[in-house]
Amino acid sequence: MFGYRSNVPKVRLTTDRLVVRLVHERDAWRLADYYAENRHFLKPWEPVRRSRI
Questions:
Q1: Residues in Cβ contact with 14 at an 8 Å cutoff, skipping those fewer than 6 apart
Q2: Long-range own/partner contacts, residues 12-17 (CB < 8 A, 24 or more apart)
Q3: Is the pTM of this model over 0.85?
Q4: Could you state, in order of their start, the residue ranges of all structural domains in the chain?
Q5: Are 22 and 10 in contact (CB under 8 A)?
Q6: Which of 13, 26, 47, 48 could crosslink 20 through cysteines, CB 3.0-4.6 Å?
Q7: What does the DSSP 8-state code read for residue 25?
Q8: Among the residues of the chain, which ranges form H helices?
Q9: Cellular component GO terms, alphabetically (predicted)?
Q10: pLDDT per residue over 6-49, tens digit each?
């Protein structure tokens, strides 16, 4: 994007049923959907946030 490459190594762990990799900016919509769909389940592990003003 800015003409340079990241020094962060590509991490990818693969099994028959799962792929674990670093998150990318292009994954933002997937993460937003995941958190929205699982909000109630994840609530005990989420940090306490101030309410919006």
A1: 20
A2: none
A3: no
A4: 12-45
A5: yes
A6: 13
A7: G
A8: 28-37, 39-42
A9: ribosome
A10: 777 788 999 999 999 998 899 999 999 999 999 999 999 999 88
